[in-house]
C-alpha cells in the first residue's frame, strides 16, 4: 500500500482543483447559453403555453399544472375538446435521457476463497448509457373525458404499460366527482413519476419502496410493493375549483400494478387528502396525508404443473422437466401491510421544501416470509418502521433548479427479535441540478447533473454489514 | 453649512417622494381580497406564465401568438375588454385581477385561480408597467350597477323588444347564435376577424357569468371589439330587462329567467323549437 505524503497530497489537491475548474467552466458555458424550459410538450403544443406554466421545473408540477391535471388535462375555457384542435394534432410526447454515469458499491458479492460469491469487494463501473424511452399519449377524448397511455421501455427497448387509464371528469358538473379506471399513479402529493432526479440510487424515493429485511442478508420475498409504483384499479378524486382542497380514494387490485392478476384476486385501498393555503407573499403552502391498506397472498391455493420434454435418456425414454408454480390469481392466505404518511409542500419565494413522515408495517407472515397456513417461526413478529424525507429545491429561474433530498428509514420493530435493532435502516442523500436552456411550447431539454449516495445497515450480501451505494450522473434529458 | 444641509434634505425628500410615486405606479391595489401587488414581484411570474403568448415586451407578440385565436392582449395598448369602467378608460386593478381569476372563455387564456391572490396582484402590477397610459391616465370610475329589479315575464318581453330596437340581432343573430347578418364582417382593433358571442353555447361570457356581469358588459362595452357601450342610450331598468331576455336565449343553461320563460306556453314552444336532441359532439357545447 502506498503511503500518503505531503507532496502527493498537494498533487492530488491540484488535480482535484483542475477537475473542479473544468466542471465549473462547462457549467459556466451552459449558463451563459441563455436563450429565452416542458414534461408533456403535447399539452404545451395544444394550449400554446410555455412548459414553465405547468411545471416549476419539468417534470415537477406547479400549482397551476396540478390544477390542470386534476381538471382532466383541461383549462376549462371551453376549448379543451379535441374538436377544437387542428385535425393533424396528435397528443404524443416521447422522453429519453442519454447520459454518462458512475455506479459504485462498497460491498459487491464476488468470488472468494470459499467459492463463488463468498466474498465482498468494492466495485465501481462507469460509462455512457441511456435511459428507457417513454411515450406519453395523453389528453382529452372529449370535453370531460381524459386519458393517459404510457408505453415505457427499459434501455433494451422492451416495453410495458406504465399507465393506461381513462377518466370521467367533472361528473354531474362537479369538480368533486372524477372517476378514473385503469393503471395509474397513486394520488401522491410527492410524485415519484415527476421526480427531478434520475440516477440508479437517486431516481426514486426510498420510503416509497422500502420493505424490511427478514434477517441479515435476507429480503422479503412473498410480495413486492411500492407506493410509488403505478397501481391498477379505480379512483375517485375530488377537488375544489381552485384546487386548494384535494381528496381521493382508490380501490386497487393487489398486484402492485402487474397485469394479468399474477397473484391473488384481492383488493387494496389508497386514500389521500391535502389542503393548501396562502401564506402572504411566500406563496402557496400545502399539507396532506395518505394511507395505503394492502394485502398480499402468502401461498397459492392451486399450483400449475408444467411438464416440458427435455430429451431422451440412454434407453431412448423421453425425459421431461416438471415445474410447479402458483396458478395466477389463486394466491391466498392473505396478510396485510400498511403504509401511512404525512406530507407538506412549503414555498418560501424561490425556495421550496417537501417534508414527509412515513410509517410502514407488514404482517408477521409477510415479514418472516412464512405462508400463513404454516406456524410462524419462533420469535417471528410484525416488522414496522418509520421514515422521513426532506426534499428541497431552489428555483433560481424557470431555467435553473438546484435539488437536494435526504431520506432516512428507521426500523421500530424487527421481524425477528434476534435481528440487530438497526438492520435495514437506510440513509440516502441526493444532490442535483437541472438547467433548461430554452423554454418554449414545443419541446423540452435539460442538462442534468446528479450525485446520490445510499447506505443500508446490515444489507451487504455476504457479511451482512453496512452497504453503501452511490451514483454520479450527467445527462441530456429531453422530450418532444 | 446649515443651508447646504437643508438643501440636501429637501433634495433627498424630493427624490424619495419621486421614488414613492414611481413605486406606487408600479403597484396594484386589489380590494377583494385586500392585497397590494408589486411589479417587481410580478415580473418573474410574468416570465414564467405569460410571456409565451403576450410577449416578452407585453405587446401580444409572444412566440405562440401566431397560433392563438383570438390574438393575445397587447398590454402596451392598454385596451382591455373586461372593465367596470366606462368605455375608453383604463380598467380598475380589480378588473384585471378578476380577469386573471376567471380567464377568458373560448380563448387560450385560462383561469389563474391556482395562483395565490398575491401572485395575481403582483402580475396586475407588472402588466401595468408595459403601457405609458398607466402613468398619464387614471383608471375610470366604476359604473354603478343598480339593484336588479324583480324578474317578470314583462321584463323579459321588454328585453326582447330592446334586442330588436337596439339591433343587437344584427351581430348576435335573432336567436343569439352569433350569426347575425353583420357577424362575418366584424373585426377587432387589431383588424383580426372576431365573432359575436353565441348566447346558446354557454352562460359564461368572456367577462363573467352573473347577471351583474352581463349588465356591466352592456354598459361598458367591450373595448377593442365592435361591441359598443350602451350607457348613454339605455336606461338602467331597460338594461336589466335586456339581461333577463338574454338569459332566455341560453336555453342549454338552466337559469331562473329560462325557467320562468319556459313556464309560459309561448316561451316553452320557442325554446323547444330551438333545441336539438341526441347530437352530443363531445365538445362541451350543445348545438
SSE layout and pairings?
The complex is a heterodimer of chains A (480) and B (287).
Chain A: H1 6-32, H2 41-47, H3 51-54, E1 55-57, E2 60-61, H4 63-70, E3 92-96, E4 98-112, E5 115-130, E6 134-142, E7 145-153, E8 159-168, E9 178-184, H5 206-209, E10 213-215, E11 218-219, E12 231-239, E13 245-253, E14 267-279, E15 283-296, E16 299-300, E17 303-312, E18 318-326, E19 331-332, E20 335-348, E21 351-362, H6 364-367, E22 384-397, E23 400-413, E24 426-435, E25 444-456, E26 467-479
Antiparallel strand pairs in A: 1-2, 3-6, 3-26, 4-5, 4-26, 6-7, 7-8, 8-9, 9-12, 10-11, 12-13, 13-14, 14-15, 15-20, 16-19, 17-18, 20-21, 21-22, 22-23, 23-24, 24-25, 25-26
Chain B: H1 2-25, E1 27-30, E2 35-38, H2 39-49, H3 51-54, H4 93-102, H5 117-127, H6 133-136, H7 153-165, H8 169-172, H9 211-220, H10 236-249, H11 256-262, H12 265-274
Antiparallel strand pairs in B: 1-2
Q: Could you describe the 3D structure shown?
A:
The complex is a heterodimer of chains A (480) and B (287). In chain A, the strands form five sheets. Chain A has a 16-stranded antiparallel β-barrel. Chain A has a two-stranded antiparallel sheet with strand order 1-2. In chain A, strands 10-11 form a two-stranded antiparallel ribbon. Helix content of chain A is 11%, strand content 50%. Chain A has 480 residues and is mostly beta strands. Residues 1-9 and 23-38 of chain A have low confidence and may be disordered. In chain A, a hairpin with a 2-residue loop joins β10 and β11. Chain A is globular, with a radius of gyration of 25 Å. Helices cover 43% and strands 3% of the residues of chain B. In chain B, α4 (93-102) packs across α5, α9 crosses α10 and α10 (236-249) packs across α11. Chain B has twelve helices and two strands. Chain B folds into two domains: 22-136, Cytochrome Bc1 Complex, Chain D, domain 2 (Orthogonal Bundle), CATH 1.10.760; 153-274, Cytochrome Bc1 Complex, Chain D, domain 2 (Orthogonal Bundle). Chain B has helices at 2-25, 39-49, 51-54, 93-102, 117-127, 133-136, 153-165, 169-172, 211-220, 236-249, 256-262, 265-274; strands at residues 27-30, 35-38. The longest helix of chain B is centred in the first third of the chain and has 24 residues, at 2-25. Chain B has a two-stranded antiparallel sheet. Chain A binds chain B through residues 36, 47-50, 52-53, 62-64, 66-68, 75-81, 83-84, 141-145, 241-243, 278, 280-281, 283-284, 397-398, 439-441, and chain B through 41, 44, 47-49, 51-53, 56, 63-64, 67-68, 103-119, 201-202, 204, 281-285.
Amino acid at each position: 500500500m502506498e503511503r500518503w505524503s505531503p507532496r502527493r497530497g498537494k498533487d492530488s489537491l491540484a488535480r482535484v482543483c483542475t477537475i473542479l475548474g473544468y466542471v465549473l467552466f462547462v457549467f459556466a458555458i451552459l449558463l451563459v447559453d441563455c436563450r429565452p424550459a416542458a414534461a408533456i410538450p403535447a399539452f404545451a403544443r395544444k394550449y400554446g403555453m410555455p412548459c414553465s406554466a405547468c411545471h416549476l421545473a419539468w417534470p415537477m408540477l406547479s400549482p397551476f399544472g396540478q390544477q390542470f391535471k386534476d381538471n382532466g388535462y383541461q383549462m376549462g375555457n371551453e376549448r379543451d375538446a379535441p374538436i377544437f384542435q387542428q385535425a393533424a394534432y396528435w397528443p404524443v410526447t416521447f422522453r429519453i435521457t442519454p447520459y454518462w454515469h458512475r455506479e459504485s458499491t462498497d460491498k459487491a458479492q464476488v468470488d472468494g476463497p470459499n467459492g463463488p460469491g463468498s466474498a465482498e469487494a468494492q466495485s465501481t463501473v462507469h460509462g455512457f448509457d441511456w435511459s428507457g424511452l417513454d411515450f406519453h399519449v395523453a389528453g382529452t377524448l372529449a370535453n370531460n373525458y381524459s386519458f393517459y397511455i404510457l408505453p415505457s421501455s427499459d434501455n433494451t427497448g422492451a416495453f410495458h404499460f406504465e399507465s393506461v387509464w381513462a377518466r370521467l371528469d367533472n361528473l354531474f358538473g362537479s369538480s368533486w366527482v372524477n372517476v378514473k379506471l385503469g393503471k395509474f399513479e397513486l394520488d401522491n402529493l410527492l410524485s415519484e413519476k415527476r421526480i427531478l432526479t434520475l440516477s440508479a440510487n437517486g431516481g426514486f424515493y426510498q420510503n416509497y419502496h422500502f420493505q424490511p429485511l427478514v434477517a441479515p442478508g435476507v429480503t422479503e420475498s412473498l410480495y413486492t410493493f411500492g407506493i410509488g409504483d403505478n397501481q391498477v384499479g379505480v379512483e375517485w378524486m375530488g377537488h375544489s375549483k381552485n384546487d386548494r382542497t384535494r381528496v381521493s380514494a382508490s380501490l386497487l387490485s393487489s398486484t402492485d400494478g402487474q397485469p394479468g392478476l399474477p397473484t391473488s384476486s384481492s383488493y387494496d385501498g389508497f386514500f389521500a387528502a391535502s389542503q393548501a393555503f396562502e401564506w402572504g407573499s411566500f406563496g402557496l403552502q400545502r399539507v396532506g396525508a395518505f394511507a395505503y391498506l394492502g394485502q398480499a397472498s402468502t401461498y397459492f391455493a392451486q399450483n400449475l404443473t408444467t411438464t416440458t420434454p427435455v430429451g431422451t435418456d440412454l434407453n431412448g425414454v423421453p425425459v421431461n422437466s416438471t415445474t410447479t408454480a402458483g396458478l395466477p390469481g389463486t394466491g391466498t392466505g392473505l396478510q396485510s401491510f400498511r403504509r401511512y404518511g404525512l406530507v407538506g409542500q412549503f414555498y418560501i419565494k424561490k425556495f421550496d421544501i417537501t417534508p414527509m413522515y412515513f410509517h410502514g408495517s407488514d404482517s408477521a407472515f409477510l415479514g418472516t416470509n412464512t405462508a400463513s397456513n404454516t406456524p410462524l417461526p419462533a420469535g417471528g413478529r410484525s416488522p414496522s418502521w418509520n421514515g422521513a424525507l426532506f426534499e428541497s429545491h431552489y428555483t433560481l429561474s424557470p431555467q435553473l433548479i438546484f435539488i437536494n433530498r435526504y431520506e432516512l428509514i428507521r426500523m421500530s420493530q424487527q421481524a425477528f427479535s434476534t435481528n440487530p435493532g438497526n438492520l435495514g435502516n437506510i440513509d440516502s442523500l441526493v444532490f442535483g441540478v437541472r438547467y433548461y436552456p430554452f423554454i418554449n411550447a414545443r419541446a423540452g431539454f435539460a442538462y442534468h447533473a446528479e450525485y446520490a449516495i445510499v447506505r443500508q445497515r446490515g444489507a451487504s450480501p455476504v457479511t451482512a454489514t453496512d452497504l453503501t451505494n452511490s451514483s454520479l450522473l450527467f445527462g441530456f434529458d429531453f422530450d418532444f | 453649512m446649515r443651508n447646504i444641509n437643508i438643501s440636501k434634505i429637501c433634495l433627498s425628500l424630493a427624490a424619495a417622494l419621486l421614488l414613492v410615486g414611481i413605486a406606487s405606479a408600479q403597484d396594484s391595489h386589489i380590494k377583494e381580497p385586500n392585497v397590494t401587488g408589486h411589479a417587481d414581484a410580478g415580473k418573474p411570474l410574468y416570465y414564467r406564465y405569460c410571456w409565451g403568448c403576450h410577449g416578452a415586451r407585453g405587446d401580444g407578440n409572444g412566440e405562440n401568438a401566431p397560433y392563438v385565436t383570438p390574438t393575445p392582449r397587447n398590454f402596451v395598448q392598454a385596451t382591455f375588454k373586461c372593465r367596470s369602467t366606462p368605455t375608453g378608460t383604463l380598467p380598475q386593478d380589480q378588473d384585471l385581477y378578476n380577469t386573471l381569476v376567471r380567464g377568458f372563455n373560448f380563448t387560450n387564456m385560462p383561469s389563474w385561480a391556482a395562483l395565490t391572490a398575491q401572485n395575481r396582484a403582483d402580475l396586475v402590477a407588472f402588466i401595468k408597467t408595459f403601457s405609458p397610459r398607466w402613468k398619464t391616465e387614471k383608471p375610470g370610475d366604476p359604473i354603478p350597477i343598480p339593484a336588479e329589479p324583480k324578474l317578470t315575464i314583462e321584463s323579459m318581453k321588454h328585453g326582447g323588444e330592446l334586442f330588436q330596437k337596439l339591433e343587437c340581432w344584427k351581430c348576435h343573430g335573432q336567436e343569439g347564435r352569433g350569426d347575425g347578418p353583420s357577424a362575418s364582417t366584424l373585426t377587432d382593433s387589431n383588424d383580426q376577424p372576431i365573432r359575436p358571442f353565441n348566447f346558446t353555447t354557454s352562460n359564461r361570457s368572456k367577462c363573467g357569468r352573473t347577471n351583474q356581469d352581463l349588465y356591466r358588459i352592456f354598459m361598458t362595452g367591450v373595448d377593442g371589439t365592435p361591441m359598443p357601450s350602451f350607457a348613454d342610450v339605455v336606461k338602467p331598468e331597460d338594461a336589466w330587462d335586456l339581461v333577463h331576455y338574454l338569459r332566455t336565449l341560453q336555453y342549454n343553461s338552466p337559469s331562473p329567467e329560462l325557467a320562468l320563460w319556459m313556464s309560459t306556453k309561448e316561451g316553452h314552444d320557442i325554446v323547444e323549437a330551438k333545441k336539438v336532441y341526441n347530437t352530443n359532439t363531445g365538445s362541451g357545447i350543445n348545438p
